[in-house]
Specification:
The protein is mainly α. The chain contains five helices and two strands. Bound molecules: protoporphyrin IX containing FE (HEM) (2 copies).
């Protein structure tokens, strides 16, 4: 396949980095959300619990950075045409899922950041503490965490649809959709 028939390499690389980071962030986030702080400490101990919180926040901030770069590579470079073309249904569903994923993956880290800061917790990124930007406000933090959870379920649903679509194109329709995002030749 000709290079112009795929997304440019940096965009494909960003896709897979965000995919891995988002799946990890969701897995850790849902574990922490499901158990809550106290039960996580009882089950896993203090050190591991802190590692999980720090990794989750770090992955989230990383996703925000990678998605910003990705919006640039998406807008600045030509998006290859589908060959063969998608039908109207496929085009509508895939474009909606892609746009919702872009939006949700930007909104989600901002919600997590604001919820954490307003709850009086540190916004950690690897070994650094990032500025919170908003002051402590417990009721606001609770609302923001509630939306952080809701958008989390939305992202999970979109990813399930997205992966089902990718497998459909790859294994059943056997068209070129998978190649457009593949890092392999
Ligand atoms: C795309 C990025 C992110 C995803 C997909 C994500 C996903 C999630 C999910 C699904 C939960 C579980 C919600 C629940 O069941 O209550 C969660 C919890 C949490 N998230 Fe995120 N998150 C992201 C970014 C962030 C960021 C950037 C921060 C902070 C800097 C953050 C801080 C937290 C905290 C502290 C919790 C635990 C809340 C609790 O203990 O109930 N998240 N996250
Ligand atoms: C095993 C997992 C995955 C596979 C096989 C896969 C496959 C693909 C393929 C083949 C495309 C190109 C579609 C097209 O050109 O029309 C694509 C695009 C896309 N994927 Fe995935 N993907 C996976 C995981 C993910 C995850 C976890 C996310 C989100 C966190 C994601 C977000 C996107 C987005 C937003 C696009 C739109 C194209 C763009 O980046 O501009 N993908 N994916």
């Amino acid at each position: 396949m000709h290079e112009l028939d795929r997304y440019i390499y940096p965009h494909r690389m960003l896709h897979w980095l965000v995919a891995v980071a988002a799946l990890l962030a969701l897995t850790i986030g849902l574990t922490l959300g499901f158990l809550g702080y106290e039960s996580t400490v009882n089950l896993l101990g203090n050190t591991l619990t802190n590692v999980l919180y720090t990794s989750h926040k770090t992955l989230g901030v990383l996703i925000l950075l990678l998605m910003t770069l990705r919006i640039i590579t998406r807008l600045a470079f030509v998006v290859p045409d589908h060959e063969p073309p998608l039908n109207t249904f496929e085009r509508l569903v895939s474009t909606s899922v892609h746009h919702l994923l872009y939006g949700a993956l930007i909104v989600m880290p901002l919600l997590g950041w604001a919820a954490t800061a307003s709850g009086g917790f540190p916004v950690e990124f690897f070994i650094w503490h990032l500025p919170g930007f908003i002051g402590e406000h417990e009721a606001l933090s609770e609302q923001l965490f509630m939306w952080h959870e809701r958008v989390g379920w939305l992202i999970l649903g979109l990813i399930v649809l997205h992966i089902a679509g990718a497998i459909f194109h790859w294994k059943i329709k056997r068209d070129n959709v998978m190649k457009r995002m593949s890092l392999l030749d």
